Amino acid sequence: MEYRFNTPLNGNIAMTYHYHEDAALRRDKSLYKFVWVQSGTLDIEVDHVVMHLEKDEIISLTPLHHVEVKRVEGEYLTFLFNSNFYCIYGHDKEVSCNGFLFHGSSHIMRLQLSAAQSEQLKSIIDIFAGEFGIKDNLQEEMLRIILKRFIITYTRIAREKLDVGQDKEKSFDIIRRYYVLVDNHYKEKKQVQDYAEMLYRSPKTLSNLFAAYGLPSPLRIIHERIEAEAKRLLLYTNKSAKEIGEILGFEDLAAFSRFFRKMAKESISEYRKKEKEGIMAN
């Protein structure tokens, strides 16, 4: 079963139970994705790391993530859209998901839904599917409203997991904005102080905030974002290590090599050789 809608301005939204069989959707590198296991299990590879998902587990992925479904034992749903259909940056005040559900690091939002939460999201999916039986000039905006409702509901569930109540919203918003800033500036700004200044906070305040939510340290988040991009470029491009180091803002190859070995626990050449051999074997 598949539902797909395209706008005249190249906006796309889709829902499918067979993402792994849809070559067009898999080729489209502009799509944000929710992947939700509805029965059985799913093995999905994200940036060359396999995740094993079980019933009512759901993850959110950005266009930056390289995704491959490895094994399906049951049924899963994929809900996809691009920025031309709904821009999470432009509507950030409405849905508050940018930097929380969606960011470019290797830390992926992964939720285990309760029965009640699953029913909540399923009711939205049912409304979405039903809307495809109505063909009029209001359909596009209605689908956008339904998508927004899904994102807001998912965001609320994720906030509940992290115990973000009304009294903590302001402090958590700082964390969310930090992730957004790191996504936008990690190539040229590699110190917590740089981001603290943009947020009008001290580095110590940021460290305490992240610790309070059990999150990696602010510096670790910068390093993990750089590492994630380095690995993507090493695996999915033919660029040399020197070129990648320059793209990521390192002074020279030696500095990039030291950073990569410290983060990945292996050299650049070892990582590229091992992972590309793994890709060829599969």
Strand-helix topology:
Layout: E1 2-6, E2 12-16, H1 23-27, E3 31-46, E4 49-54, E5 57-61, E6 67-82, H2 92-95, E7 110-112, H3 115-131, H4 139-161, H5 169-185, H6 192-198, H7 203-212, H8 218-236, H9 241-247, H10 253-264, H11 268-281
Antiparallel strand pairs: 1-2, 2-6, 3-4, 3-5, 3-6, 5-7
Helix pairs in contact: 3-4, 5-8, 9-10
CATH architecture of the largest domain: Sandwich
Total of domains:
3
Q: At the fourth CATH level, what is the homologous superfamily of the largest domain?
A: Regulatory protein AraC
Task: State Rg.
Answer: 20 Å
H/E element order: EEHEEEEHEHHHHHHHHH
Shape: globular
| N- and C-termini, Cα separation | 28 Å
Alpha-beta content class: alpha+beta
Keywords: DNA-binding, Transcription, Transcription regulation
GO molecular function, one term: sequence-specific DNA binding
InterPro entries: Homeodomain-like_sf, HTH_AraC
Domain HTH araC/xylS-type: 176-274
What descriptors fit this protein?
282 residues, 20% strand, globular, single chain, alpha+beta, Arc Repressor Mutant, subunit A, Jelly Rolls, 7-stranded antiparallel sheet
Describe what this molecule looks like in 3D:
InterPro entries: Homeodomain-like_sf, HTH_AraC. This is HTH araC/xylS-type domain-containing protein. GO terms for molecular function: DNA-binding transcription factor activity; sequence-specific DNA binding. There is one protein chain. This protein is 48% helix and 20% strand. It contains 11 helices and 7 strands. Strand 1 and strand 2 form a beta hairpin. Helix 3 packs antiparallel against helix 4 and helix 5 packs parallel to helix 8.
